[in-house]
Amino acid sequence: MKIFVTGSEGFIGSHLVESLVKKKYKVTALILYNFKTSSGWLSELEKKNKKNLKIIYGDVRDFNYVLKETKNFDALFHLAALISIPHSYNSPKSYLDTNLIGTYNVLEAAKINKIKKIIITSTSEVYGTAKYIPIDEKHELQPQSPYSASKIAADNLSLSYFNTFNLPVTIIRPFNTFGPRQSTRAIIPSLLTQISFGKSKLNVGNLKPSRDFTYVKDTAEAFCKTLKAKNIEGEVINICNNFDISVLDLLNILKKELKLDFSLKIQKKRFRPDKSEVFRLHGSNEKAKRLLNWKPHYFGKKGFVKAINETYQWYKKLDNLKLFKDTYSI
Ligand SMILES: NC(=O)c1ccc[n+]([C@@H]2O[C@H](COP(=O)([O-])OP(=O)(O)OC[C@H]3O[C@@H](n4cnc5c(N)ncnc54)[C@H](O)[C@@H]3O)[C@@H](O)[C@H]2O)c1
């Protein structure tokens, strides 16, 4: 089976590509063209796992490029996106160009090239602050940031391609994912890198919001499960744990369960505008269990502690930590 992956060199994409090649699928990984011809996190893959991997450089914003490169594939995973919420306040149009037009290019190319399975990646941010929990796929969508709006638009465009052209599209909607290789814009790597660099006073923002965190190995497995699942075309499927914890709970877990010692410096500049902050995300994974035969391996508080410990061990390794020395949160 030949598979095309966009966003392949990023956090989730690299774990997905790694899982796919380990399962012996033939993968073509699209990497955003860059002046260093860096292969991003795909450079972490062991040599033996690169046998079934072909890397190409390009840009999902270029329709002709996407059309030319996506010929003769059985399945396509579309993960390429701009994802930082604060950056979407500064540069909203770039989010439309990448997240909406990029998705249009992928859908249109997949239609012309007759790809049989197209997986579009959504996000729990589209739900906004929970009106009820657990959030199922029928929960209303609330565009609380330009990022969220761009993903809602891309999801709706994808569903319109299913309804209008019968394009075999499925929307996978991960809730907050964490694990090795995630950039420090997200709360967990931000805390773990600050601790690993030896800071005793951690910079943090709002402690109230809660998230349904999923370990990246579980998220990657959910994507893989779509390849064998039947009757998922036109469906939206949450990927989550059915369990949420606040930033404050997270800090307490780091102290009590991982025995880490630190104090906090609350930085107002890290707060999102009130109407834009998503205060609670706690999802239902019933549909994923039913349609994908997937459930998280790392679940509940026990699973979360295990996963956060694995993640911490990864960040504190010197070879990994040095990769984050020049990063900053946006
Ligand atoms: N990380 C999370 O918690 C989370 C949660 C829900 C959904 N998602 C979604 O999962 C997907 C992957 O997110 P991630 O966390 O791995 O982020 P990431 O920033 O690590 O990965 C995004 C990837 O998209 C690529 N990209 C950006 N613009 C591109 C372009 N114009 N052409 C080609 N490639 C381009 C980047 O180079 C990067 O590899 C995104 O669609 C995101 O919206 C992420």
Short description:
The chain contains eleven helices and 13 strands. The chain is an alpha/beta fold and 330 residues long. The chain has a single domain, classed as NAD(P)-binding Rossmann-like Domain (Rossmann fold, 3-Layer(aba) Sandwich), CATH 3.40.50.
Please explain how this structure is put together.
With 330 residues, this protein is α/β, with parallel strands linked by helices. The protein has one domain: NAD(P)-binding Rossmann-like Domain (Rossmann fold, 3-Layer(aba) Sandwich), CATH 3.40.50.720. It is built from eleven helices and 13 strands. Strands 3-2-1-4-5-6-11 form a seven-stranded parallel β-sheet, with helices on both faces. A two-stranded parallel sheet has the order 7-10. Helix 1 packs across helix 7, helix 2 packs parallel to helix 4 and helix 4 packs parallel to helix 5. The chain starts with a strand and ends in a 9-residue tail after the last helix. The model has no long low-confidence stretch (mean pLDDT 96). The site of nicotinamide-adenine-dinucleotide (NAD) has 25 residues, from helix 1 and helix 4.
Map the helices and strands.
Layout: E1 2-6, H1 11-22, E2 26-32, E3 53-58, H2 63-69, E4 75-78, H3 85-90, H4 92-112, E5 117-121, H5 146-165, E6 169-174, E7 177-178, H6 187-196, E8 201-204, E9 210-211, E10 214-215, H7 216-225, E11 236-239, E12 245-246, H8 247-256, E13 263-266, H9 286-292, H10 300-316, H11 318-321
Parallel strand pairs: 1-2, 1-4, 2-3, 4-5, 5-6, 6-11, 7-10, 8-13
Antiparallel strand pairs: 9-12
Helix pairs in contact: 1-7, 2-4, 4-5, 6-10
Nicotinamide-adenine-dinucleotide (NAD) binds next to helix 1 and helix 4.
